[in-house]
Write a structure and sequence with these properties.
Double Stranded RNA Binding Domain; alpha+beta; single chain; four-stranded mixed sheet; 10 strands; GMP Synthetase, Chain A, domain 3; 2 domains; 210 residues
């Protein structure tokens, strides 16, 4: 790894100075270059504003130029009890998430309600820990097929990270349409089940396109 002019902690601390930012974590590649910036923020500002401010502060303080696509923002909102929760769409209701494993293979089923209509998606594959999370993304996308008007969604990556002592599911999806490709990202706080959080993060990523 190449020698870096500033420690990562200094970069993260600078990002925390941005209005509404609660926590930040930076991942770098083997060359010491910023690969990903994960941000946990309050709901008081539009994510695009936060991203622009992060770009500006890194450029001003450290002369770092970063592609905005590498910055992901998970937003918190206060619910009636005063607890923080990831803002997710209420257009679809998640009613069931199941996992069955047999002889090293996993079968995932996701069930959702759109009004009175039950949407169901199934996905199968090897039962490794990471691939099972990926299957929950793919099962969710299959359940949404009746709503996507011919759009093609491709699962790129999924993972669970920790920010501000909370675990967050992050999903990266590519939308392939007649106008070209578009990268979509979604996130959701892991409350009791990381699988449900992955499903909600998938919905967060594709909701605006449905």
């Amino acid at each position: 790894m190449s020698e870096m002019p500033y420690p990562i902690k200094d970069w993260e601390q600078a990002i925390k100075q941005v209005k509404s930012v609660v926590a930040a974590r930076i991942n770098i590649n083997q060359l010491g270059e910023i690969e990903e910036v994960h941000i946990l923020a309050g709901s008081g500002r539009v994510p695009k504003q936060i991203v622009r401010d992060v770009e500006s502060i890194l450029a001003a303080q450290f002369d770092l130029q970063i592609d905005h696509k590498k910055i992901s923002v998970a937003q918190l909102e206060e619910n009636e009890k005063g607890n923080s929760a990831i803002e997710v769409s209420n257009r679809l209701k998640l009613v069931g998430v199941t996992l069955r494993t047999v002889n090293g293979m996993a079968e995932v089923k996701v069930e959702m309600l759109k009004g009175d209509t039950l949407l169901e998606g199934l996905a199968e594959g090897p039962s490794s820990s990471h691939n099972k999370l990926r299957l929950f993304v793919e099962a969710t996308l299959k359940a949404l097929e009746p709503l996507n008007s011919g759009l093609l969604f491709v699962t790129e990556d999924v993972g669970i990270i920790q920010l501000a002592k909370q675990h967050i599911a992050l999903v990266s999806i590519t939308l392939i349409a007649s106008t070209g490709e578009q990268s979509l990202t979604g996130c959701a706080i892991v409350k009791n089940d990381d699988r449900e959080a992955v499903v909600k993060a998938t919905l967060d990523a594709v909701n605006r396109k449905l």
